[in-house]
From TrEMBL, chain B:
Keyword vocabulary terms for this entry: Membrane, Transmembrane, Transmembrane helix, Transport
Membrane topology: Multi-pass membrane protein
PANTHER family with a match to the protein in the record: ABC-TRANSPORTER METAL-BINDING PROTEIN, IRON TRANSPORT SYSTEM MEMBRANE PROTEIN HI_0360-RELATED
Name by which UniProt lists this protein: Metal ABC transporter permease
Family: Belongs to the ABC-3 integral membrane protein family.
Listed SUPFAM superfamilies: ABC transporter involved in vitamin B12 uptake, BtuC (SSF81345)
UniProt xrefs under Pfam families: ABC-3
TM annotation in the entry: 20-39, 59-85, 97-117, 137-156, 223-241, 247-267
Location of this chain's protein in the cell: Cell membrane; Membrane
Lineage of producing organism: Bacteria, Bacillati, Bacillota, Bacilli, Bacillales
UniProt main location, coarse: membrane
Coiled coil regions in record: none
Alphabetical list of CDD domains matching this protein: TM_ABC_iron-siderophores_like
Amino acid sequence: MLPFLKYEFLQNAFLTGIMVGLLAPVLGVFIVVRRQALIADALSHITLAGIAANLLLGKWSSFFAAANPIYMGMAFSVGGAIFIEQLRKVYKHYEELAIPIIMSAGIGLSVIFISMADGFNTDLFNYLFGSIIAVKRSDVWTVFAILVVVLLFVFFMYKELFVLSFDEEQGKLSGIRSNWILVAFMAITALVIAASMKIVGILLVSALMTLPVAASIRIAKGFKQAIWLSVLFGEISVISGMFLSYYLDLASGGTIVLCLVVILCLSIFYKKFTGSRKVGHL
Amino acid sequence: MSIFEFFQALFQYEFLQKALFTSVVVGIICGIVGCFIILRGMALMGDAISHAVLPGVAISYMLGINFFFGAVITGVLTAIGIGYVSQNSRIKHDMAIGIMFTSMFAVGIVIITMMKSSADLYHILFGNVLAVRMSDMWITLGIGVLVIGLVVLFYKELLVSTFDPTMAQSYGLPNKWIHYCLMAVLTMVTVASLQTVGIVLVVAMLITPAATAYLLTNRLSVMIYLSALIGVISSVFGLYFSFTYNLASGATIVLVSAFLFALAFFFSPSQGIVWKAHKSRKNRLELLEK
Amino acid sequence: MNNNIESIAIRVDDLSFHYGDKNVLQHVTMEIKKGSFLGLVGPNGSGKSTLIKCILGLQKPQEGNVYLFGEKVNKFNDWDKVGYVSQKANSFNTAFPATAFEVVSMGLFGKVGLFRFLKASDKNKVWEALRSVNMDQYAHQNIGELSGGQQQRIFIARALVSDPELLILDEPTVGVDTESSDSFYKMLKELHRENNMTLVLVTHDVGVMTNYVTDVACLNKQIHFHGNTKEFEESSSENMSAFYGHHVHVLHHDHGHE
Ligand SMILES: Nc1ncnc2c1ncn2[C@@H]1O[C@H](COP(=O)(O)OP(=O)(O)OP(=O)(O)O)[C@@H](O)[C@H]1O
Ligand SMILES: [Mg+2]
């Protein structure tokens, strides 16, 4: 076995990383084609507020002190997802303005919760930028549970998600009840964001969802291929990013995203040199 | 602590005076520039530029120079990069923005973790207006005067090119040039706001007061004044809460402005959701009566 | 003629619609018989697309009702009986990574149902639909890499793939070259004649259209005319100019006439 894997914390990080590298791009494909990257970003900021709230509550209540803050993060994130999806539906016109505001309110709240708890500590640092040494065994199991839920959802709802992403009108005409599927999708996205947080950090989660997809849709033929390629790119960058992060002692979120950027640049050049194919705008 | 005590403290402590002065200036210029940002549909761009200055700031810290220089250079480079990518590679604008800004931000984070000083990092990210130095205050003031001067001088051009870019083109206005100038201004405003609200929250300072004003009026001139006013109110109250309860200043300022936005969103007489619901209910009732 | 419920495909009953304060449709009432081929015409902004959307239940009218095959549209469930090509069909996100084949197969999703997958027989249907619009050789191209007219054909194939009894097309030949649009109209006529399909076609191509359709309706907020093609042609010149508000030459293109 690799020397890299002899410590338990590294095993944890590695397992979580592999799962997250699969999850984030799979959902990212749907998010990118629906142009909702901003929403993913907003959700990650709201997740942070949940985590911070837990840290604060932990000061007063032993129940919260013992709990893994990731659960509170998920609760906030799912709540935020449902709220945003409703907002989107009812006030289409204001979406673009309201979301960045919700997002910054989320981070404003988290900063306040944290400074009320015990000031800034390294814990927060890990949540912000990701860290491979902070992943616990219980995190691995949580992420595994999320993995199962998400894969089942995407597998059985593939058709529906595909139509709804392509055009909602056709979805309605196929008799798909778009409302609850979209809400469920947002809720699941929220879970994945919370799951990815430990490895890539809040501020860069949305990059792990969107950059592999941005690279893959330049090359892929068809939707399924786009999904597989995104997953491949996601895994490559998560794994190599974690190695770099470990050996160079840097925040893992930063190194993972830099790997993604390299892949994206390669895909752009690949396209430039191989294809004269017509490429659409995204 | 009451407002009164806050004023007493204000007379007593020089650092508080500096903090208040700086955040008021920041509130004004963010409010003004924010109006153009949201009317031109560049909210995302504001977000991108503000995050993208991180590597510049980090490098300046490492070299021990004023972060103003590093930030302006990286900010302008990013704006040009986004323009270049979206014009030359058929990647659409919002995607180009997302790509550029996450990459720059990731570079910044890597550099900062190399520095191994999380205290500085938090100040860069979330702001600490109570630690404003004299030189920062002068830089902020300088930027403020410059930005306001530019807006006053080029108000007509900005107005036309914001509302009707094609018409502006036919008048012979250099749209592209105006765009890049605005980007440069945006970068400077970001830098000016760094101390007060921090990188992560600059975009909130830019968008929230302007969006609030947008809900309240349809006229650009009124919107600019309102937005600046809302920016100032948020700064003053935010600073008050920050000082009183010992909280991060950026967060309190942003939360106050988010609160004002929520008020306008629900209760604005022309656009507010509560009124709208009320009105449409009344309409329906009238229809039923007929 | 037989006029009972059975023979009516679409019934629009005193329908009014407005976007906010803007009145778009006023008291529209019409019946479209099964097996008819209706051309719906009207100037830009006259509410044609809106009427279609109300018929399909994609927009909820503030007043009035729509019945599809005798069933109120919000209770209607047999969506695979209905094919629709929207006016903005090819204004989708062109970087969307879906092949032509994948796009066409969407038309079957209503039939296939929740939690199930496409079977081999479904895939054959997709191929058949692609062949019928002459696009089978492009099946594995990404949709964004096709030309506008080719994309339009793919969307037509998507509407056809579930063998609908009712096909609604909102300006389907915009961006399609004359030759293809002629063969397209012929294909519609064939579908209409051989499969006894009910067709509703929105178009500005008044001259060409009258060569193919059996009925014509003129819409401008209200229905100004609804009758068969012959009546329409007899009254057309004075009607049309009054209707469009300026003089219109109704050209009769004779090509394509059998
Ligand atoms: N989403 C919308 N919101 C507000 N108004 C709308 C909307 N869609 C259409 N309208 C308005 O409703 C009116 C009817 O539009 P509609 O698209 O039904 O016209 P149309 O007859 O299909 O025109 P065209 O020939 O150009 O396709 C137009 O005046 C248009 O401005
Ligand atoms: Mg139309």
